[in-house]
């Protein structure tokens, strides 16, 4: 009887120790991954900012549908997939749209401007919007 109790207590202590070790390893791995992401710049950091003047310098265009295809199904598919992910509205011919320089994602000008004032990162891929990168590539 005593041997069974001792065995049960030992197994309980060993089980708890294994769970604690697994937990510590998982937390440590997650912490290291977050640190690596921050150091490599893949996570949006609070230092990712852009001024309102720089926002106004971002490229923009008037949206237009490519009517080259005669297939109505292709045109309908393009209309359904071409939308601003900030307001979730589809682009209409003549809408003023802005193209982000680092990732080439498009949004309505008003939508992305108000977004970038709060968070200077693309709402889709979370890439920091940086005009200097595009300017350096152009040289």
Question: Which CATH architecture of the largest domain?
Answer: 2-Layer Sandwich
Decide which structural class fits the backbone: mainly alpha
Task: Give the CATH level 1 class of the largest domain.
Answer: Alpha Beta
| Binned strand content | 5-15%
Task: Identify the strand order in the major beta sheet.
Answer: 1-2-3
The biggest beta sheet, please? 3 strands, antiparallel
Segments where pLDDT lies below 50 for 5+ residues? 75-80, 134-139
Could you tell me the mean pLDDT?
79
User: Tell me, what's the shape?
Assistant: elongated
| Domain tally | 2
Radius of gyration: 26 Å
| Pattern of helices and strands | HHEHEEHH
CATH fold node name of the largest domain: Herpes Virus-1
Q: For this structure, what is the CATH homologous superfamily of the largest domain?
A: Zinc/RING finger domain, C3HC4 (zinc finger)
Helix content: 40-55%
User: In whole angstroms, how far apart are the ends?
Assistant: 83 Å
Q: Count the E strands.
A: 3
């Amino acid at each position: 009887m005593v041997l069974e109790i001792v065995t049960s207590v030992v197994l309980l202590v060993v089980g708890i120790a294994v769970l604690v070790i697994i937990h510590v390893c998982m937390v440590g791995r997650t912490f290291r991954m977050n640190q690596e992401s921050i150091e490599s710049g893949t996570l949006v950091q609070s230092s990712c900012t852009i001024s309102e003047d720089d926002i106004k310098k971002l490229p923009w265009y008037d949206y237009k549908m490519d009517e080259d295809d005669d297939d109505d199904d292709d045109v309908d598919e393009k209309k359904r997939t071409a939308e601003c992910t900030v307001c979730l509205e589809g682009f209409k011919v003549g809408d003023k749209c802005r193209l982000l320089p680092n990732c080439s994602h498009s949004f309505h000008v008003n939508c992305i401007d108000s977004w970038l004032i709060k968070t200077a990162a693309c709402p889709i891929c979370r890439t920091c919007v940086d005009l200097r990168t595009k300017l350096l590539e152009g040289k």
